[in-house]
Amino acid sequence: YPTVDIEWGDEPDTDCNATILIPADANIIINGESPSIGDLIGVFYNNSDGGLSLGGYATWTGSVTSIAAWGSEAGEDNGFQVGEEYIWYVYDNETGQSLPATSIVSFGDNTYSCNGLSGISDMNAECSSSTGLTLSDLSAGDYTTTVTDANGCETSVEFTISEPDALDASASVTDALCNGGLGSAQLTVSGGTAPY
Fold first, then answer.
1. SS3 85
2. What is the pLDDT of residues 100-130, one digit of tens each?
3. In angstroms, rounded to a whole number, what is the distance separating the alpha carbons of residues 73 and 78?
4. From the CA atom positions of the chain, what is the Rg in Å?
5. Do the beta carbons of residue 104 and residue 122 sit within 8 Å?
6. Is 90 exposed, middle or buried (CB count within 10 Å of its CB: 0-12, 13-18, 19+)?
């Protein structure tokens, strides 16, 4: 999904809509938790500017609810086109963030049709995580930083960079004997990071 500013509450009001049923027992997960009363569940469509526009939403109450997904009027860009796929977002009341969501439709389709009827059985919305972060040229010490993902989700991260003990070397020397005898030197290394 693109990174967008989601405008909640600016839904169209056109001549035709589809109804999307959200049962009270739908398996909805937001950032690993059940939805909170007041979270918003919305469907968005692609507008002529290439962005997303709100096509309808419902406020989660813990009871059966539904979304009226508004269709576009003839020649207008003010709602869903017939056959257009629903793009789901959830507004997490606790974090104040709009999160992209995936849904499983239990009946009907995940696309708009005038006077259509569909229902959700499962939905998952969460901040994404990535292991692609690379840090370099940091000295040993304690650090705190804020990480923001592509969905705008933020978290504070604390980490410590340690360094090995200082490298220390000592030599034990045995002198060579007279008349061609062999000597030796033994080096003892500690600290640092093996192998040496």
1. strand
2. 898 989 999 999 999 999 999 999 887 765 5
3. 7
4. 30
5. yes
6. buried
